Amino acid sequence: MLTGWRPGTDPADLSAALFDGAIVVFRELPAVRWFAEMVRAIVRDVFGTDDPPGAESSLPASDYRRLAVCARNRVADDAVIRREWRNVLTAVGYAPESTWLDRVRLRVVPSRSDIDHRRLSPLPPHRDTWASRIMAQVNWWLPLYPLRETGTMLMWPDAFRSPVANDSAAWDFEELERAGRGYPLLPTAAYPETAGTPVLIEPDDLLGFSAAHLHAGRCDASGRTRFGIDSRTVWEHDLRAGRCAPDVDGSPGTEMWGWFEAPRLAGGRR
Predict the structure, then answer these.
(1) Other residues' Cβ atoms within 10 Å of the Cβ of residue 168
(2) Among 45, 104, 200, 261, which one has the highest count of C-beta atoms within 10 angstroms of its own C-beta?
(3) What DSSP assignment string belongs to the chain?
(4) Is residue 267 scored above 60 in pLDDT?
């Protein structure tokens, strides 16, 4: 399922592969290792332990929720983290000055069922393009600690070109903003009949895939939290060249460019 990708390759070739359904992994990139260690340092500081994945076993649910949300906010608001993320994108070939940038998100998925917070729960099956409606969007995923087959991301590569029943026609971002907790975070599908493939890469490996891939989160009862980073990009040169993934089952709607920081490339969209 995974294709190893060599940094320094023409980014147009990378985009073409991604929008053809490839799921690529960058391994042993110094910029990625440095970025991941900076994020781990924040997580260790917030949870006050050298083993943040095990912290859920010794904390009341309310304390854990508070610390997890604090760690998410620390990462999201850290200017150095944002700078180092740009260095990661440069290393893979998408120069930040020509790339639309989404926020850097710390994904925290505890295994305990009583830590009920929708920002800390595994996401159900979805394509990101159902919400963003941007078919040239690329997703990035970076585990910070070792993964387990029962505690990772699931993907359905065979669904890339096959329609999947979903509720994207009824989902509305403005309604999410108005309704808050009572409204779904994103458009979703029912779990497909076929089992998803667990993504098992090493900490500090960087996964890239088209936002049109069907994927979901999975957690177990191991007593250990899954920590990772995810973000999204759109390369301006893909837009200009018309490179994008197929839209096999999305619903028409507004493209969510407001979720992204615009590139600084002269002549880019604003």
Answers:
(1) 21
(2) 104
(3) -EEE--TTS-HHHHHHHHHTT-EEEE-S-HHHHHHHHHHHHHHHHHHTSS-GGGGGGGS-HHHHHHHHHHHHHHHHH-HHHHHHHHHHHHHHT--GGGEEEPPPEEEEE-S-TT---GGGSPPPSB-THHHH--TTEEEEEEESS--BTTBSEEE-GGGTTS---B-TTT--HHHHHHHGGGS-SS--BPPPSSPPEE----TT-EEEEETTS-EEE---SSS--EEEEEEEEEEHHHHHHT-----SS-------GGGSBPP-STT---
(4) no
